[in-house]
Design goal:
243 residues, alpha/beta, 5-stranded parallel beta sheet, 5-stranded antiparallel beta sheet, 7 helices, 28% helix
């Protein structure tokens, strides 16, 4: 989808807010517009920031998450609600208040990814479903020069300390652009995050091999090295590769 998903994170525990913000920060389509530490603050911040989605804790002092969700239903333009809590017993009640998902702490990264995909579908206007790929090239700066790279020629990109390394069919580039920004710019193309430090062009994938602890390795066309796939991304990756 073209526009960013504006997210408000609501939890009375600072650590929980930071953890969720960190996990959501892995998604280029997500923009954290604010956070709130109470139900009352959540209502104020919703009016102030107009988020698309609220990740909402249940157990909070004074005004709890269910009361917040009930209040949000009265808004003229109410945001989507995802409950993020340590208490499984409130799930049925949560969906009565229009929640689109119910995540349990500690958060499972694969479940969170599925939630983000559900949100993207819900927020995609019907006329935007068919996305036309841009004709432009990826512009990167190397030692003061601007190089224009055809996305279809990029095999994979990985982050090595403070440098992103772009491996293409003809050249390799070292740039300071963060991997997350490169991923965002390549969204219309067939790239997939297989690890927090690796972004792969799926058109070059030839084989997926089990490794250990639920992780896999990718064999890439024209390359000798194997790339590791985090177990949190395996299921979604297989869905993207198979027809």
């Amino acid at each position: 989808m073209g526009k960013l998903i504006r997210v408000l994170v609501v939890d009375d525990e600072h650590y929980s807010r930071d953890e969720l913000k960190h996990l959501l920060g892995e998604y280029p389509s997500v923009q954290i517009v604010g956070e709130a530490d109470s139900g009352e603050d959540a209502i104020v911040k919703t009016l102030q920031y107009q988020p698309d989605v609220i990740f909402l804790d249940v157990e909070m002092p004074k005004m709890n998450g269910m009361e917040v969700a009930r209040a949000l239903m009265e808004f003229k333009k109410s945001p989507l609600v995802v409950f993020a809590t340590a208490y499984p017993q409130f799930a049925v009640e949560a969906f009565r208040y229009g929640a689109i998902d119910y995540l349990l702490k500690p958060f499972d990264e694969e479940q969170l990814q599925q939630t983000i995909q559900r949100i993207e579908k819900l927020l995609t206007p019907p006329n935007d479903i068919e996305v036309t790929k841009p004709l432009g090239k990826l512009a990167v700066e190397v030692d003061g020069e601007i190089f224009y790279i055809e996305p279809k020629e990029i095999i994979y990109i990985y982050r090595d300390e403070k440098v992103s390394k772009i491996i293409s069919t003809s050249q390799e580039f070292e740039v300071r652009t963060p991997l997350k920004e490169l991923e965002s710019r390549l969204l219309p193309f067939s790239f997939f995050r297989i690890h927090k430090s690796f972004l792969v062009n799926l058109t070059f994938v030839t084989r997926l091999t089990p490794w250990f602890n639920g992780a896999y390795q990718l064999e890439i066309e024209g390359r000798e090295e194997m790339l590791s796939v985090s177990r949190n991304y395996v299921k979604t990756l297989r869905g993207r590769l198979e027809i």
